[in-house]
Please model this.
Amino acid sequence: MECNFTITDFYKAHQPLVDELYASIQAEYPQEIYGKPVKKLCDVADLPDRKYWVMLNEENKLIATVGVVLLKDHIAALKSMMLAKEYRGKRFIGSIITTCD
Model:
């Protein structure tokens, strides 16, 4: 699968696309995979020391999200990462992780 994609900072306008991605991932599993209550990315993206990105394919479909917590001395911890099923195992997520640098 070849894919042209764009990686950008998360903006509140992306939230409906994030909701759609998360719902599609949840539909893969019989049990709840998200904690309750589910916090919207748009509600946590502006918290201090947080950074979120999205990956969009050539059709502007959201295919991935990545969030980190910024620690100190240029160190960050992975907070969340979601990737659409059809893109898993295709080596796309490395591109978004590299962007987080």
Notes: The mean pLDDT is 86. The chain has one domain: 5-99. Residues 5-99 form a domain with the Aminopeptidase fold (CATH 3.40.630.30).
